[in-house]
Amino acid sequence: MKITRKNLDDAVCENIISSEQAEKLTGFLKNHSSIGPTFDFTHVLYYLGGMIAIGAMTLFMNLGWESFGGLGILIISLIYAGIGLKLTQILDLKGYPVPAGICATFVVALTPLAIYGLQQALGLWPDETAYRDYHRYIKCHWLYMELGTLAVGAIVAWKYKYPFLIMPIAVTLWYLTMDITAIISGGDFDWELRKLISMYSGLLMIGLAFWVDIRSRNKADYAFWIYIFGVIAFWGGMSMQHSDSELSKFMYFAINLLMIGAGVLLVRRVFVIFGALGSCGYLGHLASNVFKDSWLFPISLTAIGLIVIYLGILWQKHEKTITTKTRNILPIQIRELLESK
């Protein structure tokens, strides 16, 4: 729940707190706002600059760097990493956690480039693919780059404990599952296998994110990026499955509704967004195929929508009672997690 100055002023008008308490609380909140990112111009600049720097060494890397050779790429990567670590330490000491976390993330993002350069320098690179293909194609020989990135990411995250550091770790876990699939399938483009691997690995990542969420419920939001890439992998793999069974399609719809419910319960918008996309896709399927020429379908759908709104009204009336009774059944760790949302 975000508390604004207007909320405090309204509380003063209702004689809940005094104007002096409102002023003190405002000062307290401002002094502690730097703990995590907020949507303001300062933080937009932080993340825009950080993503440009990270993108330059990852997604937007061009073939020009190949002219440096493997040893040159390795040396430049290490110099960049040294600068990034130094900036992280300076910013951390000066009390700027968000830009410090971005600089630390930059160091982790450099790891696959450094390992690529090392492999090139040692003559261990197996084919003619270049580093820029790392983020484009699925290849089994990216494995060393991914394992190295996970190792460096774990060490840096253990030392600095910034939530943004989890982002490259989550991305690398996603890449790793795809490349392991390539190894299992012998390098063939077995899309059915890849869809299944994506779906199940996404489920594992969501489970990991939930575990991290419980463990860090009283600290920073370390689960954010794992949830995002876990949901993308799971929902993407599930949505690409093909079936001619209407029952299977309805089950897909039901899973998307459960995702919406889980998103509301955990206060994780990524579940709600993808669940809503999947639900709309299923309703589109009904409109285009199952009830293509039925005049009754739009009317029925409207009625369902109104029923859902009515259920929302009932929920609002009895939310506190239902929530209290439900949470009393849950284990204390999960209860504390939900109460902290």
Blueprint of the fold:
Blueprint (H helix, E strand, L loop, with lengths): L4 H9 L5 H13 L9 H16 L12 H25 L3 H25 L21 H18 L5 H19 L6 H25 L8 H16 L6 H21 L2 H22 L5 H34 L2 H8 L2
Helix pairs in contact: 1-2, 3-5, 4-5, 5-6, 6-7, 7-8, 7-9, 8-9, 9-11, 10-11
Structure, described:
The chain has helices spanning 5-13, 19-31, 41-56, 69-93, 97-121, 143-160, 166-184, 191-215, 224-239, 246-266, 269-290, 296-329, 332-339. The mean pLDDT is 84. Helix 4 packs antiparallel against helix 5 (97-121) and helix 10 packs antiparallel against helix 11 (269-290). 74% of the residues lie in helices and 0% in strands. It has 341 residues and is mainly α. The chain has 13 helices and no strands. The protein starts with a helix and ends with a helix. The radius of gyration is 24 Å and the shape is flat. It has 2 domains: 34-171, no CATH class; 190-341, no CATH class.
Could you provide a short overview of the structure?
The protein is mainly alpha-helical and 341 residues long. The chain has helices at residues 5-13, 19-31, 41-56, 69-93, 97-121, 143-160, 166-184, 191-215, 224-239, 246-266, 269-290, 296-329, 332-339.
Number of helices: 13
Instruction: State the helicity in percent bands.
Output: over 70%
Note the overall shape.
Answer: flat
Mean pLDDT: 84
Please provide the ordered H/E string of secondary-structure elements: HHHHHHHHHHHHH
From the alpha carbons, calculate the radius of gyration and give it in angstroms.
24 Å
- Give the amount of beta strand, in percent: under 5%
